[in-house]
Amino acid sequence: MAPRGRKRKADAAADGETEKPEKLAQGGDGGVGEARVVIEHCRSRVYARHAEAVSQALRLARPELPVLLNPTKPRRSSFEVTLQRPDGSRAELWSGIKKGPPRKLKFPEPGQVVEELKKQLA
Question: 55 pLDDT exceeds 80?
């Protein structure tokens, strides 16, 4: 029995997935030589709403600092805020992965993340 072409679709999907990390490695979102804040969050509405609130607070506090939401595929039930420095090092501003239940413990107050960012940049 002849194959139905599934193999070609899988190859095309794999090619599409490899383009995003290359784009990020080249600095397509935020530049290579500058600090940036990355927010990784699960794709549910609740996580997205909290991520947007945190990103707005960070943009108001530091408008020159780019904030990226989910530059790669997020982990399940994740909510993390990370500062990536120009030298390649990372500083975790918030991680809600091991927090909860209840789910509300997974999400920080936006002001709390801004204070942690100020500490890390000082």
Answer: yes
Rounded mean pLDDT of 13-33? 45
* 57-61-63-65 Cα dihedral, nearest 10 degrees: -90
Burial class (CB in 10 A: 0-12, 13-18, 19+), 51: buried
The full set of domain ranges for the chain reads 36-121
User: What is the number of residues in the chain?
Assistant: 122
Give the separation between CA 52 and CA 56, rounded to whole angstroms: 6
User: Per-residue pLDDT for 20 more than 90?
Assistant: no
Write the DSSP assignment of 13-45 as a string of letters: HHHHHHHHHHHHHTTTTT-SSS-EEEEEE-SSH
Quick check: 114 and 61 in contact, CB under 8 A? yes
CATH topology of domain 36-121: Glutaredoxin (3.40.30)
pLDDT at 26 over 80: no
Which residue, among 79, 93, 74, 29, has the nearest Cα to 49 in the 3D structure? 79
Query: In angstroms, rounded to a whole number, what is the distance separating the alpha carbons of residues 109 and 60?
Result: 15
